[in-house]
Amino acid sequence: RDELQFMRDEFVQFGINEWNAARVDTRLLKRAEAQAKTGGIIDIAIKLNVTPRTAKSLVEKNVINANNISAGKQKRYVFDLSQDYPVKKDHGRSLNYREAAQIIGLPVSVLNSLRLKGLYNITHIGTKIASYHSVDLEKIYRKIVRNIKKFDPNKFDSNMHIKVDEIMRKKVRHQDFKSDFIVQIVEQDLQPLGMIGEVIGSIVFDRQYINNYIEKYMINRTGKIMAYKAAKKICCEQEFIRVLVNAGYLTGIEGKRALYITVDSLQTFSSNYISCAWIARHLDKSRIKIIQFCNRKGIPLVELTAGKRITRHYFIERKYLS
Fold first, then answer.
1. Largest CA distance in the chain
2. Which of 86, 178, 236, 314 qualifies as a FRET site for 65, CA 20 to 30 Å off?
């Protein structure tokens, strides 16, 4: 039965593709058309007007997608011929990594990362498989800078403002930060103030806005925060963070150069306790008066001691606030 089906399908294909005098019944076309939507390495090479060897290189370098099918010890590539694939054009030129990065105004590593993430859509194949085509490079440039207005260079203040090229030089300890940053510009999750020049590196942001963004990004990505930043969030001196860790209130992670606090433990602590220093500042009272008030009312205090001089810090449970 399978052999008969195979012979019938092949005969239909012959009638469609080879025998010009043939007229194929429409009931047979549906199956034939479905088969024509997929093909192997030779089919995709013909579609792209390249050699099979080049087509295989395109797959290996993730320029085009293919499904892998194992046949014994051999692997075959199967392609969806119905979708659009990058095609080689005569106009435009191919650029190597450094040339492309310099023209667009981004580091080479970031441009390559954008390519892997699919933000850089390949519709033109360069002379070298891994190169960048000027037509596609122009498209990603337009995608990034669209709707960004000009920024007066005379108004740029390095204390208040920061450009993308400086952001790209920051040593942020996450490998995806820089490419994620560009993606969020494209998705308009980040709001620039404008653009001084023509390259992406000249896009201007408010410096404090970016500092806040980086802090939130790292917290979301790593799930931890540096001890001194945790201290600011719960309104205490940094030395008391380690005391809270040792007492089991916070979960600490020892880094190479600093102590980190898990975000989950910090949020749990913040939702249950509040610093007496914060209450005193909020009520414009001294900390001593807040502590004396708690003692008179029988409100229990979490007392922390740290340092050689035995400094103290106090927290109270939020359930006692009224």
1. 105
2. 178
- Which residue do the tokens 């995806």 mark? 176
Per this entry, what is the length of the chain?
A: 322
Residues 6+ apart with CB under 8 A from 261: 224, 225, 226, 227, 230, 241, 245, 250, 251, 252, 253
224 beta partners: 262
Q: CB neighbours of 30 closer than 8 A, spacing ≥ 6? A: none
Q: Model-level pTM greater than 0.90?
A: no
Mean pLDDT in order along the chain per 10 residues (322 residues): 62 56 51 60 75 76 72 72 63 75 84 76 62 79 89 94 92 81 89 91 94 88 89 92 93 87 94 94 91 92 81 91 76
Sheet holding 161-163, edge to edge: 161-163, 203-206, 194-195
